């Protein structure tokens, strides 16, 4: 069976493990999904400028990902950014400058490619920190670009997100678990359409 190199099996996040990865105790925030805001790309540019000013050449790559990076897609009003640095585990080399710039470390996951998440309150941001070669940032870009092109999947994803947004989630990962089946199926279509990597169907 041919398998895209970015494929991974369908699975829901273990909420207990997620809780253990959290740093500190941020207050719960109601998951609110709103129509697309054309100001979101500019919000990303503000965040990107702050990150680049703080880290300089330590920024290897920086990408606007997630739903706010897809024109026309309903989303939480939270800018998701993927940052690649040489070694996320070497926090002394990148974390203090970001903290001085207003970012707060919220998640530390050494077992998942040394993933870290920092937040910023204005614009509201989740900054994901990864090492070179981590597959997840590449998955995020593939997913973003597919939704930018495919109106059917974009509209289906928006409808699901709006419906879930009315259910009053206060845990973002629980909300993500309720999107997971559709997200997996979108990835399957994106993988199958990638001319660079043959991929046979991998049903859930």
TrEMBL record:
Key words, A-Z: Transferase
GO molecular function, one term: transferase activity
Coiled coil start-end: none
Gene3D superfamilies, sorted: Beta Polymerase, domain 2
Superkingdom of the source species: Bacteria
One Pfam family of this chain: GrpB
Protein known as: GrpB-like predicted nucleotidyltransferase (UPF0157 family)
Organism per entry: Nocardioides perillae
């Amino acid at each position: 069976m041919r398998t895209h190199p970015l494929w991974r099996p369908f699975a829901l996040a273990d909420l207990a493990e997620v809780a253990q990865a959290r740093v500190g105790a941020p207050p719960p925030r109601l998951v609110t999904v709103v129509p697309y805001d054309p100001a979101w790309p500019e919000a990303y540019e503000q965040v990107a400028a702050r990150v680049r000013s703080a880290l300089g050449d330590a920024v290897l790559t920086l990408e606007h990902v997630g739903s706010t990076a897809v024109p026309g897609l309903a989303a939480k009003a939270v800018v998701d950014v993927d940052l690649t640095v040489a070694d996320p585990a070497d926090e002394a080399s990148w974390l203090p400058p970001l903290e001085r710039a207003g970012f707060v470390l919220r998640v530390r996951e050494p077992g998942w490619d040394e993933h870290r998440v920092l937040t910023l309150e204005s614009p509201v941001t989740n900054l994901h920190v990864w090492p070179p070669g981590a597959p997840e940032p590449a998955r995020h870009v593939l997913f973003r670009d597919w939704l930018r092109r495919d109106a059917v999947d974009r509209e289906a994803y928006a409808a699901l997100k709006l419906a879930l947004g009315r259910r009053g989630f206060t845990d973002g990962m629980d909300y993500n678990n309720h999107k997971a089946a559709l997200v997996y199926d979108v990835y399957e279509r994106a993988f199958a359409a990638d001319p660079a990597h043959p991929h046979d169907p991998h049903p859930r």
